[in-house]
Design goal:
single chain, 2 helices, 75% helix, rod-shaped
């Protein structure tokens, strides 16, 4: 399957964007002082675990999409 140049770059950018957004989110989740992510004893709450799971899944999907985009960009450079 051949990807066009714009699609390849979009997929690569989406993968990078996913990492930037979710790394920032995890940092903010870890520093949360509102009581949503950690209870009074400092233990993680269900909110923390659900959002950590979402972040991990997004890391995996962002990586897969980014790698597909990178492979498309590299394949286009070889044929040009």
């Amino acid at each position: 399957m051949k990807l066009s140049r714009p699609v390849s770059w979009f997929l690569l950018a989406f993968g990078v964007w996913s990492w930037v957004i979710w790394v920032t989110f995890i940092k903010n989740l870890h520093k949360d002082g509102s009581g949503l992510a950690f209870d009074d004893a400092g233990d993680p709450t269900a909110y923390f675990w659900v959002h950590l799971t979402l972040a991990v899944v997004s890391f995996v999907l962002g990586t897969v999409v980014g790698v597909i985009g990178l492979r498309g960009v590299r394949a286009l450079r070889r044929t040009s």
